[in-house]
């Protein structure tokens, strides 16, 4: 867990009588984490089905788009093969456009 996530969890609203960060309306811990994305999506106004597997794809994609090297993301994802990690990655078109704009051809080689 990095510092940004730890801080976000510290600021996350909690049930007044619960020690848990993520709990039901009675303050009891959530027992089925597979239903959490569905409820979170509903509260956020996101239509359609959201599943845990989609969150793995999103995590992988965002990590790679933020410049984390693919081998590190592979390790975090628990993949034995880098190709598996790359299949999880879905790069946004805007990210591709920004990446191509960062390329420079005015240094390194003399013609």
Word description of this protein:
The protein is mostly helical. It has a domain at 53-106. The protein is built from 6 helices and no strands. The radius of gyration is 19 Å and the shape is elongated. The mean pLDDT is 87.
What is the chain-wise order of helices and strands? HHHHHH
- Radius of gyration, whole Å: 19 Å
Query: How many H/I helices?
Result: 6
Number of strands: 0
Q: Assess the beta-strand content as a share of residues.
A: under 5%
Main sheet record? none
**What is the mean pLDDT?**
87
Key features of this structure:
111 residues; mainly alpha
What's the gist of this structure?
Helices cover 51% and strands 0% of the residues. The chain has six helices and no strands. It has helices spanning 3-11, 36-44, 52-65, 70-77, 82-88, 93-102.
Q: How do the helices and strands line up, and which of them pair or pack?
A:
Elements: H1 3-11, H2 36-44, H3 52-65, H4 70-77, H5 82-88, H6 93-102
């Amino acid at each position: 867990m990095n510092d940004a996530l730890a801080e976000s969890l510290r600021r996350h609203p909690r049930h007044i009588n619960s020690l848990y960060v993520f709990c039901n309306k009675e303050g009891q811990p959530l027992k089925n984490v597979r239903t959490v994305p569905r409820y979170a999506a509903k509260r956020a106004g996101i239509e359609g089905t959201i599943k845990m597997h989609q969150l793995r794809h999103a995590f992988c994609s965002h990590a790679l788009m933020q410049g984390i090297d693919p081998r590190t993301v592979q390790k975090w994802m628990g993949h034995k093969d880098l190709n598996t990690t790359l299949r999880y990655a879905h790069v946004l078109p805007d990210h591709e456009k920004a990446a191509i704009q960062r390329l420079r051809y005015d240094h390194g080689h003399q013609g």
